[in-house]
Amino acid sequence: MKYKIIDLPYTYDSLEPYLDKKTVEVHYSAHHKGYEQKLLEAIKDTNIESHYDTLEKLMKNYDKIEDPGIKVRVRQFGGGLINHNFLWPSLKKDVVLKDGNLKKAIISKWGSIESFKEEYKKKSLEIFGSGWAWLVKKGNHELEVIKTFNQDNPWFEGYTPIIGIDVWEHAYYLKHQSKRADYFEDMWKIINWDFAETQFNK
Ligand code: MN3
Question: How far does the centroid of ligand 1 lie from the alpha carbon of residue 80, in Å?
């Protein structure tokens, strides 16, 4: 199978106290795993896998799928699978943003890390319903904070994701309940800036 859930790169309790063990466990083993299963179910009688040999290519081209029922499920479940495959490695405790290309680009665009954070937080809180807030690099190498709804994602647009924050309630409700701003602040503390830097330099 070409489209697979990644192994969680740490134990369920590794992001405590910012993200609790139970949330990570349910998010990974039920939600994320469910997206993989439903994607594979949706495409099992098609030749989609032979056309697009990676999830990224599938996302970039999902719009070309002709059957509307399969297309919508690839959008939802393929999107869910790739978004969460990106999410877990992008989180880690105690990683600071080092002097490097990403930091330079953020400061050149927003003036300071604080102003960047402010815009990112604002966009994360603006999303009504389920979605994600992303820092992406566009084709012209410009950084931008974008919002996507449901499991839509930067790969649809051909953007390179640098950071992705899942603002579906399942991502935080057990610990933060309705306090999405508190969740954002906790996520901010566990951004794996080394992973983000690698993404930026792609
Ligand atoms: Mn999620």
Answer: 7
The residues near 118 (Cβ < 8 Å, ≥ 6 apart) are: none
Threshold 0.70, pTM exceeds: yes
Cα–Cα distance, 35 to 109 (Å, whole number): 35
Instruction: Find how far residue 103's CA is from the centre of its chain.
Output: 20
Is the preceding omega at residue 89 within 30 degrees of 0, hence cis?
no
108 contact partners, CB below 8 Å, separation of at least 6: none
Q: How far is the CA of 34 from the centre of ligand 1 (A)?
A: 11
CA of 108 from ligand 1 middle (Å) equals 31
**Residue 105 pLDDT grade (very low, low, confident, very high; cuts 50, 70, 90):** very high
Which strand (E) or helix (H) includes residue 57? Answer: helix 55-61
Of 156, 160, 152, nearest to 132 by C-alpha is 152
* Ligand 1 centre distance from Cα of residue 37 (Å): 15
State the pLDDT confidence band at 175, using cuts at 50, 70 and 90: very high
| Cα distance between residue 122 and residue 142, in whole Å | 20
Structure tokens at 45: 């009688």
* Distance from the alpha carbon of residue 32 to the mean position of ligand 1, in angstroms: 7
